[in-house]
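Note to self: keep these together.
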Amino acid sequence: MLSGHGSVRRRRGRNNRAARIAVPVAAVMALGLTVGIVVGTSGHGAPNLRSAAASGSAGVFNSSIQDTCDIIVPAHPLTAKGLATPYQLTGAAGGSPAATGCQMTNSINLGAYVQATILNSQTGALYVYNPLVITAGTTPAVKPVVPKLPKHAVVTIDFGFNGTFLIQKGATLYALQQGNCTDGMPGSPFGQVSFCNGTNFFNIAFRLERAGLLTIPSAGRSRNMVPSAGALGTGHQCPTTRNFDMIDQDQSDNVTTHYLLNPATGQTAQDNAANAARMKGAQVLVNGSDNALIDNFLDPAFGCTPFMAPDLANHGAMATSQALDELLAARNQPSHAALVPENDAMVLGLGGSFDAAKTDLYRSEIGQAPVDNQTDASSSPQMYCQNMVNIQTPFIAANEKIFAAWPSPVPTVGDTLFTFMANRLAQSFNNLNCANFGLHQTVTVVTTNGAGAATAATLNDDPEVASF
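Structure:
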């Protein structure tokens, strides 16, 4: 048995397929698995990332804190005024922020984040703007920048949450209708994420791209990436949110937004250069996000650059966004594309049943094709599990040395990027119930440190075939 930082071996045969994952459940439950949260305590430096406390329907919070919050969406959210009006985080079902823990000071558990991506429908130019979220009953630490939108702006708004369920509420009777906003199906919310106007945004973006008015770059090629064996991987292509090399059980979720927090007052502000200079010692709040994993960890590890656009709240400094990541992924979609599967917890219907309509709604808000025979070829529940196992397992193993040299996004899950990725894959297999399709766990976490984090893993890269 191998030990040490990220040691891996590939095992052949089926005698040792059963994996033992000796990691605390709180660190890796469904919905909160990807990248942890926040809290930079030494000024405006890189945030310290911690494991997301909010995960899965079982919840892992202190008993006095709920896992569901409401977010109050301002009137006319797709306009410049609406974007610059702070969103308010508050307790669900009329609960106060203090009584429920739905406060931005409790960001590691229940922080909410909003991100807008703007498209000029005449020129194809793209922009990013991160609307501010404040705790209801407070005021911003610094008044948000009012963005200067292009005349023919098409706006999409993505929401991320560090808890389990974030429910949209309109500040006015028609606010959600004005923004084409959705947080799921009636009585069946998505969970951590929700959207405003995504379907319209991506339909227009793809139309402009076909007309040659919007140019989305190539994902690029990594010079140090080791492609996994076989023809199903993406070779040397830089990571995107639709590559099976990179996805987890709930892909394409959450945003890359940062906020600044004044810990003395509990007030938040947009994270831009001016506010950082003004708010010395501010904490940096970050949303746990698949997109942040790719943009801030995997891309740098592979020498890649994420797709960025000018930030309208930060004097045009280049910034990432969830929608930009999805545009890049659509432009560079592999033949075996990873699309949100029906066994993703965020799109399950009432009673935990598969719900194609809910899956289609989620997919449409991030520019993915609906459930049909063509997409099922790679992303039906069975095929998603099969492709994840057969593509990602050998990919992580092949790139062990690269991953092991990089820090972990969530040190309580894995002590390096390698052990984090291996443990993330193992838990994704479990959370998607991939064993129900005749597949076997391919990852064994063999040691943990005193904090419960994985420090080594073995991976079995034998190809598997799902049963139907």
